Amino acid sequence: MNYVKMYITALILFLLIDALWLTVIAKNMYKQYLGYLMGDVVWWAVITFYVLFIIGLHYFCIIPAINAQSALHAFYAGALFGLVSYATYDLTNQATIKGWPVLITCIDLLWGAFIGATVSALTAKIALLLKWH
Known about the structure:
5 helices
């Protein structure tokens, strides 16, 4: 049951932080650099990404950090997981889509590392404080 609490906590944190990023902070940047590629949102793909990304954070970052009793462990593991996950997308686009902006790739890699680290560390910290282990 505690794994479910941790998963839901991580998912809520991710959705809140990513929504702020996508709708306020980076909205105009993506429109400026990728507007020519943007279409309607494909919601099944968005939902699938969020579910899978949080499963990865949970399995590879949060649970090991809980076992190690260390939110810092979650921070570093989450940063690496986020970096690799976002790099998979952006570097594939960089390699295959003519005119894909290098700036977007760099920013997304930083964003992936940041959100992975932040969500993992916060979730682990909450789980450790509430003794969900």
